[in-house]
Amino acid sequence: MTLFLIIYAFRLLPSFSVGQLMVGLQIMSMIIQPLFQILMQTNQYANYQLLKMRLEELFQNIDKEN
Q1: Nearest Cα to 29, choosing from 51, 49, 47, 3?
Q2: Which residues of 25-46 are buried (b: 16+ CB within 10 A; e: fewer)?
Q3: Positive or negative torsion for Cα 55, 58, 64, 66
Q4: What secondary structure, in 3-state letters, does the chain show?
Q5: What is the pTM of this model?
Q6: How many independent structural domains does the chain possess?
């Protein structure tokens, strides 16, 4: 919806090259946003795995002490 509003707004202006720039940026943000979300999910999974490994080491050290 935002993309259509940007296209409509810049068709009314005489300098359409700025409109093309804005549309290009909007399209790029729509492409990059899912990739960034995938990156964030991967980072969260890696943090989870690291925490899991540290907890396992902690439990092993506790078992060795007892």
Answers
A1: 3
A2: eeeeeeeeeeeeeeeeeeeeee
A3: negative
A4: CHHHHHHHHHHCCCCHHHHHHHHHHHHHHHHHHHHHHHHHHHHHHHHHHHHHHHHHHHHHHHHHHC
A5: 0.50
A6: 1
Structure tokens at 30: 């729509």
Match 């795995």 to its residue by tokens: 49
- Dihedral angle, C-alpha 26, 28, 30, 32, nearest 10 °: -140
Q: Which range of residues forms the domain containing residue 16?
A: 2-65
Kindly report, residue by residue over 2-56, the tens digit of the pLDDT: 667 666 666 666 566 777 777 888 888 888 889 999 999 999 999 999 999 999 9
